[in-house]
Amino acid sequence: PRPAEELTIWEDARAMINKARAEGIETVHERLQKQTPHCKFCELGTSCRICTMGPCKITPKSPRGVCGADADVVVARNFGRFVAGGAAGHSDHGRDLIEVLEAIVEGETKDYKITDEDKLRRISAEVGIETEGRDIKDIARDAMECFFGDFGSRKKEVSFLSRVPQKRKDIWTKLGMVPRGVDREIAEMMHRTHMGCDNDAPNTLLHAARTSLADGWGGSMIGTELSDVIFGTPTPSMSQANLGVIKEDKVNILVHGHNPVVSEMILAASRDPEIVAEAKAAGAAGINIAGLCCTGNELLMRKGIPMAGNHLMTELAILTGAVEAVVVDYQCIMPSLVQISSCYHTRFIDTAAKARFTGATHFDIHPHNAYEQATEIVRLAVKAYSERDASRVDIPCEPVEIMTGFSNEAVISALGGSLDPLVQAIAAGDIRGAVGIVGCNNPKFQQDSMNVGLAKELIKKDILVLVTGCVTTAAGKAGLLVPDAIEMAGPGIKKVCGALGIPPVLHYGSCVDNARILQLCAALADALNVDISDLPVGASSPEWYSEKAAAIGLYAVASGIYTHLGHPPNILGSETVTNIAVSGLEDLVGASFVIEPDPVKAAELFDERIKAKRIGLGLSE
Ligand code: NFS
Q: Is this structure's pTM higher than 0.95?
């Protein structure tokens, strides 16, 4: 096996990989090795399994599938479906928030409420709902109807397109890329890629972009905004990250997945004095909730709950031997967690009808029973504590401090009520530009080497970094999410962030919260009276793996944001598709993808891009 040092840059991860090996427990790294080399056709995107005349693979000797589809068509169809899968994930998550809002409006839950009434009024007004002098429940009902409507077929465009600069919308209109309805675009992608429909690769790709826009400006944005309405809009606070947030003397519950709906209830139940007393009676010092992946990000942003780890830490967290329960909702949850939990006293609990795991304990959680179910789950964890084997516990490090909670609302308030100071800092060149580094871990890369490496390089060049998703924990563990990290930044960032007392790398939330970054870019473009593609900004997903990340990358590009990926999607089997992705899109939407595995080189590419955009705006380089 490859040495742990090669697999990850982190001490806590290395310790747990070695513990797994010593205990004979298989992790993602061993499984990757067994799966390597991967199928070349699948890697290139040139295998087709969408009908039973096949499956087909495109080779020089057989350049067309049984139906006659060539490499371009096969690759474009596969990629289109890949993006649709990602958009479906984010957007179905968004829909779940509308259903919670519905339960609140209909009086079917006492566990959830409207926490940020101001925000509900604000976003309702933005989508054209009358708010003046109306009762909050009536506004909420209209907002619920409006957002449910964004998923359907009766609208010409999703409601939050009200936030998109007119120039951008004109481009989308011209290209036939205006997202009409979330479910509609996803269903149409499935239709177009059925055998015998859209057999023109560029045309398929335009619809893939439209589908991704329905995610970014539709489902994801609704998910973010309603999560803020229901659970509170994030404000800056301090917390901690890495495996050291798991506490030896406490009942440890890890919440994992993406949606705050269940995890917020687990958190509330863990603070129930009666259950805390039960934990103490069992000999524990208390109950400790820590997060993994994006559910972790949601609780971190709003409640300051510490982050145990990102994607490649999820298996390793259980290997500490000190986790009583892993409570999951959906997405990015490796099924292997069930097996690893069973090697310890750890209870693995699934909570969503649409994401069940063989071997898990299932709790059927809905808005009407959520808190009561959560109390049962926390009690299960308390019970498991007495079964913990102290001789197998190893918590390999002390936690690192991080700052979190940078919603746009929090940033604007820190700036004194408007974006003007940020615009001025950009104009003056103190902040030369901004890049959102987002997305995952992938065992094909040394964990977090690129996520951290790129962030460090960019801030040195006075480029502000915003992080979401699994890059959050990476940046946090590297010490980049604290105000002191300005010491690692260039002079301009040091001056501006130093004066504001904020880090040079800002935690902007979970992956659906990339919608916050879209909104910020749109607001900046409006403030400068330009298009988003004119801004000195970029996006990157260095270590991405998921369909969701592909959807994010594509909506960033389609929104006019130059986007870096550490490795390509499975499209290289088609020259046409590859060329569109890395250059052709530039002419169409004013931005494209760039693939670069080296973080230093990637930072240079961003530097060049930002220079060019600054000059375009009449600013100094
Ligand atoms: Ni994003 Fe969040 Fe992490 Fe990647 Fe998965 S948790 S939605 S997909 S792995 S960043």
A: yes
